[in-house]
Write a structure and sequence with these properties.
Number of helices: 11
Helix content: 25-40%
Strand content: 5-15%
Oligomer: single chain
Distance between the termini: 55 Å
């Protein structure tokens, strides 16, 4: 059964995607707070005590098996974010908590180095932002992603980044160093070229124009770039797909992918509530089209279907995507990243000297 929120949505909170904190489905106790005002939800950063940073998955729908996420939760506040339910496992809400209670892996670069140095580690491409964006606003100050990239460059381990933030241009030097060994690519997620829709749907992401400018700068340094039209929101942003693909190609993208909107778990209720606040006149059209692609529901979790969708409208989106890619000259596969240049630097001995027999 789909989760439903009250028919009267709470008022918008300035700079946030969600407007409240729905109850955590794993918690037996909930606390009712006073209705938040436009300035009452500051971001709080918490230390993440994880002792490893590389996560593995065996999903047939995901194009990578190893990922690194320096942050848990994401201040970007994208209302549709499929990662929102992960905050429930930490005891938080997938609503405002997800975008205002950010767990930070301060020692991620040191933990990454330790894992790459292990003889058990087999070189393979590592995805950054497999769950939350590694270039969310806090990265400008904390520089954890930057330091992780420097470790990867030292080992020449390939990395694939997905981001909605133009801050990635800061690290073009390290990415270019890796790209010289066919060991880096950057995917820019662009959901809409309309700054007003972006402001409402992805409140703390970079302006679409800035993402395209960052794409141009990164690709000019020899780093392969992809555009991800993701998610495509039917009835709201689907008509923009040709324009997004053409603009990304002009900026330097060589590869393109798209994913229709999916609304797992509590994200469905949050998204319905957001539509009621932001686009009430389009709410039923959007939700009905999502149901049309998801077997009558707002989410279809089946492997093979959850990233593609099914039905007439999903088929139309695929046809439009592939036709436009052929027209503008975008590949729908992707650059292969290489582990051929991987190396382990010499390890220091207990006396502080470098061992001739390590690395």
């Amino acid at each position: 059964m789909e989760e439903r929120h009250p028919s009267t949505p709470p008022p918008s909170v300035r700079g946030r995607g969600a407007a409240d904190n729905p109850t955590n489905r794993f918690e037996t106790i909930s606390v009712e707070l006073e209705e938040p005002g436009p300035e009452t939800v500051p971001t709080v950063f918490l230390r993440d005590a994880s002792r490893s940073v590389l996560s593995r998955n065996d999903s047939p729908d995901v194009g990578f098996s190893v990922s690194l996420n320096p942050y848990r939760g994401c201040e970007h506040g994208c209302i549709y974010c499929y990662a929102r339910p992960t905050h429930e496992y930490l005891g938080f809400s997938p609503g405002l908590d997800f975008e205002s209670r950010i767990l930070v892996k301060e020692d991620a670069p040191e933990l990454l180095r330790k894992e790459l140095m292990s003889p058990r580690y087999k070189p393979e491409a590592i995805a950054m932002s497999g769950v939350t964006d590694c270039y969310q606003p806090a990265e400008r100050r904390l520089r954890i992603t930057r330091r992780c990239l420097e470790v990867l460059a030292e080992f020449r381990n390939p990395v694939a980044i997905i981001t909605k933030n133009a801050l990635v241009r800061r690290d073009t030097d390290v990415l270019a160093e890796l790209a010289a060994h066919d060991a880096a690519m950057v995917g820019f997620s662009i959901t809409s070229l309309d700054p007003e829709i972006t402001r409402r749907m992805e409140p703390r992401t970079s302006h679409p124009r800035e993402r395209l400018e960052a794409l141009a700068e990164v690709s000019s340094r020899g780093v392969p770039c992809a555009v991800l039209v993701s998610p495509v929101v039917p009835g709201l942003t689907d008509h923009e797909m040709p324009g997004i693909l053409a603009a990304a190609k002009e900026a330097g993208a060589t590869v393109a992918h798209f994913i229709p909107l999916r609304l797992p778990g509590p994200v469905a209720g949050l998204f319905e509530e957001w539509l009621e606040r932001q686009f009430p006149d389009r709410k039923e059209k959007v939700l009905n089209r999502v149901r049309g692609m998801r077997g009558g529901r707002l989410n279809d979790p089946r492997f093979g279907n959850r990233m593609r969708g099914e039905g007439i409208f999903a088929d139309q989106l695929r046809a439009l995507f592939h036709t436009t890619c052929r027209k503008v000259g975008l590949d729908t596969g992707g650059p292969e990243l290489s582990t051929a240049a991987f190396r382990r630097p010499a390890a220091p001995r207990a006396d502080g000297q470098l061992s001739l027999f390590d690395g």
